[in-house]
Specification:
By secondary structure, the chain is α/β, with parallel strands linked by helices. It has helices spanning 22-33, 49-59, 82-99, 105-115, 124-137, 156-170, 192-196, 222-236, 242-253, 257-270, 285-296, 301-312, 314-326, 337-345, 360-375, 379-387, 399-414, 419-438, 481-493; strands at 38-42, 65-70, 142-147, 180-185, 348-351, 354-357, 392-393, 396-397, 442-446, 455-462, 465-474, 498-505, 513-519, 522-528.
């Protein structure tokens, strides 16, 4: 069977195109398992946790008895108390143990099986006494991996399970127990109390303070993506520039595993059916943009979860809006609840000491979400929707006219507002105005490298054509020559001869309107409001 790109469940090297994980598995073994660490792999949804653990199970088999169990297989009713949890756990444990084909496995498991015959034995303390006996008699050290610990996080019995495991860890010099324990899920274990008991007094208490910090990057680098695409190219010989395509995919995803695979899957399976790719040239920048547009319009579990969390955690949503709309520099501190939660879900990352949205696709999806929520009451959105039919001519977006009309309506409606109001909301108004004009056909994103309180670059993709618009906040008599030079640099990067600058100018002597600036062989259309 020919391999394919997978976005559902575990990836398997012999079935799916995937990046090589040997280096990652080796680091986990050397830095954590060999050293007897107990630790947590908590990453965002669909970040490759399960794939990594299952491959690690096979990777460790020569030196360890590696057991992989999935707490999703334990029903809610079985987490009610120790008497219902322990039989379910033993069933999963013994099934995983049998898969290892360990010598005398029935004999090793017998103390656990004996527990089930007497309800008086069904205590967590007794369970770990017998697990310790198994570890002591096993021919190789035992490593326990538990996936989807989130499934247990609202249950007191699981917190008790962690507490007893912690006690066994601290006493393992005297009483044998697992060589290493790995828990995997979205929620950091210290936040389990937050889910179980949301009151502030208890929300950060955790029985899992023995865990070592897990600092291995689970994302994909551009080089890893290129290696995966190289395997695909060897099979299909599309003629793609493997390094360039990998770099562009990385620009959109920052290596988020699901998003990388989703783009590749769309390009492999969906885009060849589109008439604009009838010539077979799918694996190029235009193909990536088209794939991203499809993904952004899709209802996926990843995006459904994002919507849910942004609705649940209002501080998280506010932080994301401040970053995207205002370019507000927010110092990265894991002690701030909204930042901690955003990083835990994989929506935020730290860059140069500041909070950033984790990748371009998340930015675009969040912007779409925020703008959709505001569009019903937005005058800017209504004007864009009213004007949209006049901006597309022969399939081309007339960006010059977009800026002309925006200046006209902005001055009429918002011109009397004070500086603080316009500086806070001016860029939001432009994005709201632009959205209905390109909606369904084009997309835009904010360039993370240039976003700050004074400047933001908007990159617009419309039917294969790119427009670079610099949004600039200007105070006093500040001259914008540096902004023009920066914009010229971006035009060179995107191989464009023409760029756009929208200046929110608070100089009393400003001249409102649109003018053309020629710098060498480049043209800048500057709009001033």
């Amino acid at each position: 069977m020919q391999r394919y790109f997978n976005t559902e469940g575990q990836c398997k090297p012999d079935v799916h195109y995937m990046v090589g994980l040997e280096d990652r598995l080796d680091k986990i073994k050397r830095l954590y398992v060999d050293r007897g660490k107990y630790f947590v792999i908590n990453r965002g949804r669909q970040y490759g946790k399960t794939t990594t653990l299952r491959l690690l199970t096979a990777y460790l088999k020569d030196e360890y008895i590696a057991l992989f169990i999935d707490f999703q297989k334990i029903g809610t009713e079985e987490f009610q108390n120790a008497a219902t949890f322990i039989p379910a756990f033993i069933d999963l444990f013994s099934t995983a143990f049998h898969r290892t084909n360990t010598a005398q496995q029935d004999e090793l498991l017998q103390p656990l099986m004996d527990m089930l015959e007497n309800e008086k034995n069904l205590s967590l303390r007794e369970l770990f006494t017998r697990l310790g006996r198994l570890c002591e008699n096993a021919p190789k050290p035992v490593v326990l991996m538990i996936d989807e610990v989130d499934s247990a996080s609202n249950n007191q019995v699981f917190l008790d399970f962690l507490a007893v495991l912690r006690g066994c860890y601290l006493d393992r010099d005297n009483s044998p127990i697992f060589q290493s324990v790995i828990l995997a899920g979205v929620y950091d274990i210290k936040n389990l109390k937050l889910k179980l008991r949301p009151d502030s007094k208890h929300q950060y208490n955790s029985p899992w303070n023995i865990a070592a910090d897990f600092n291995i990057d689970m994302g994909f680098s551009a080089r890893q993506i290129a290696d995966m695409l190289g395997a695909y190219e060897a099979d299909y010989q599309t003629g793609m520039d493997v390094a360039a395509v990998a770099k562009e995919i990385y620009q959109y995803t920052s290596g988020y595993p699901y998003l990388v695979s989703a783009i590749c899957k769309m390009m492999d399976e969906r885009l060849p059916e589109f008439k604009e790719f009838a010539d077979g040239r799918v694996w190029c920048r235009d193909g990536i943009v088209a794939a991203v547009n499809i993904i952004l319009k899709s209802n996926t579990p990843l995006f459904d979860s994002m919507t849910k969390q942004l609705d649940t955690y209002k501080d998280l949503r506010q932080t994301a809006e401040e970053i995207l709309y205002l370019g507000k520099p927010i110092s990265y501190s894991p002690d701030i609840k909204s930042i901690n939660i955003g990083a835990m879900f994989g929506y935020f990352k730290e860059e140069n000491g500041h909070v950033m949205i984790a990748n371009r696709i998340f930015e675009m999806r969040m912007l779409n979400m925020f703008i959709a929520a505001e569009s019903l009451d937005s005058t800017a959105f209504a004007y864009g929707q009213r004007d949209r039919n006049q901006f597309v001519r022969n399939g081309k977006l007339d960006m010059d006219l977009v800026l002309e009309k925006f200046v006209e309506y902005f001055h009429d409606i918002y011109g009397d507002n004070d500086e603080k109001f316009i500086e806070a909301y001016g860029r939001k108004f432009f994005l709201l105005y632009l959205k209905p004009i390109i909606n369904g056909t084009g997309n835009y994103y904010l360039e993370a490298q240039t976003r700050d309180s004074g400047r933001t670059d908007v990159i617009i993709d419309y039917l294969g054509e790119q427009f670079v618009v610099e949004l600039k906040i200007r105070h006093g008599t500040e001259y914008n020559e540096r902004g023009e030079e920066q914009l010229i640099g971006y035009l060179e990067y995107f191989h464009r001869k023409k760029g756009y600058m929208l200046s929110f100018n608070f100089n009393k002597k400003k001249q409102i309107g649109v003018k053309t600036i020629t710098l060498g062989d480049r043209t800048i259309i500057e709009a001033v409001v």
